[in-house]
Design a protein that fits this description.
Number of helices: 14
Number of strands: 0
Strand content: under 5%
Shape: globular
Order of helices and strands: HHHHHHHHHHHHHH
């Protein structure tokens, strides 16, 4: 059974528990809900008491808040006014981002920004999470937490938050930038390029320099991977392994080839003035350094398309 299905089952069980606690369901419904939870747990082979598994399934979100993002993305939010006959023509777009309505959430966000400036990323994540809990669909809180996750090398979490942020408000362009970075570091150069392209589109006027730089870096990586894939197809079984991008931190020759590509080398071809990868790998000192860099891609200053968290003024 797919892991995603088990995660969804845990999220549903958690949603039912919350609905009992917050009064959505009455005490008379408790027995039926417990039976339903037990059936779901048995059928999907999950343990609702496993807090670590539940956190892995939904993080600091809830199923209801995640669905709220989906409703907003689809334009089905129940709080939105119904369309009228005069709305046949497109209306003037509203400014990006929600108007802050929760002072406590804003306070947590401001404290999180201060923690980011102090490079206390774990504290920033905790503070942004408190803001998100109070306002689950606020793209600024989600995007800022994505930046903190990236700075803490938790790139999967950063990608998830950035994707929620752009779903909540696609016009909030910082979220596209942070999504582009997270995807790039995880080895998804095509997805990274798409995210930066969306950011440029929503910024307008050709996009900012930072967004264009991110797009250019990701596009170059996509083109490089396509050329290497074509070369491997032509070479058959004797063709060298292709690089897997910035997100391959598992070591091995594939990861080292990816590092050479990021540094501008030809993956062992020795072109452009770069030394041949094979000769470099024969040097134990360089091999050790390369393995360390691939395990810690954030050390490669200047090779990532955009930094995750230099600007948290929102």
């Amino acid at each position: 059974m797919a892991t995603s299905q088990k995660r969804l089952a845990l999220a549903i069980i958690d949603f039912l528990s919350i609905s009992l606690r917050d009064g959505t369901l009455t005490a008379e419904d408790a027995e039926s809900i417990e039976v339903a939870q037990s059936c779901i747990a048995d059928t999907f082979h999950v343990d609702p008491s496993d807090k670590a598994a539940l956190k892995d399934a939904i993080g600091d979100q809830s199923l209801l808040s995640i669905y709220g993002v989906y409703e907003k993305l689809k334009g089905k939010n129940s709080t939105a006014p119904p369309p009228t006959s005069s709305s046949a023509k497109p209306s003037t777009p509203k400014p990006s981002g929600p108007t802050p309505t929760n002072p406590e959430a804003e306070s947590f966000k401001s404290q999180g920004n201060n923690a980011m400036q102090q490079k206390d990323y774990e504290k920033a994540i905790d503070l942004y999470s408190k803001a998100v809990n109070l306002s689950p669909t606020n793209p600024i809180y989600l995007s800022n937490r994505a930046a903190a996750y990236s700075a803490s090398h938790k790139h999967e979490e950063a990608r998830a938050d950035a994707e929620l942020a752009v779903a909540a408000d696609p016009k909030y362009t910082k979220a596209w930038s942070r999504l582009g970075l997270a995807r790039f570091v995880l080895g998804d150069a095509k997805g990274s390029m798409d995210a930066y392209e969306k950011g440029i589109e929503y910024e307008g006027n050709g996009g900012s320099e930072a967004m264009k730089k991110g797009y250019k870096t990701a596009k170059e990586k996509v083109e490089e991977e396509e050329k290497e894939a074509a070369g491997a197809d032509e070479g058959g079984d004797d063709a060298p392994s292709t690089a897997r991008g910035a997100g391959n931190a598992g070591g091995g020759m594939d990861g080292l080839a990816g590092l050479a590509s990021m540094l501008g080398g030809g993956g062992g071809r020795g072109g452009g003035g770069m030394p041949d990868l094979g000769s470099l790998m024969s040097n134990p000192m360089f091999a050790s350094m390369a393995q360390n860099l691939m395990s810690n891609p954030e050390q490669l200053q200047g090779t990532e398309p955009n930094k995750a968290c230099p600007d948290l003024a929102d």
